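Hi V.,

You were right to ask for the full record rather than a summary. Here it is.
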Amino acid sequence: MVSSKFYIDKSYNYKNRFDLERFVPIVGSYFDILNSPILDQLKSFKTIGTYVISEYPYRPDALSYNIYKDSQYWPYILLYNGISNVMDLSLGLSINFFSLDDLEKVIYKFCNYNKKV
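Predicted structure:
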């Protein structure tokens, strides 16, 4: 019997699912973060915790891994915290982080909207 429960298959194309290039237009060689509906909603996510950088300064990938056990979320963490330069990721810096469920919901809504257009 097939279950009627809805779920997101997180194993499908997993590494590309959160690629920032999918949701932010590129102008020249830069991300245009001012014109992204995903990033506009990112600012409204509730902070669920704070992480203090105690190792690997200036490494956004390591920061993401230490918080979420996956390095792919680092662009969202930096944007969420208003950080545009990785050199600002110094030892002792407090980083706020959000629920990945919030990011999933926004991306799912965005992808479904674009399928209809």
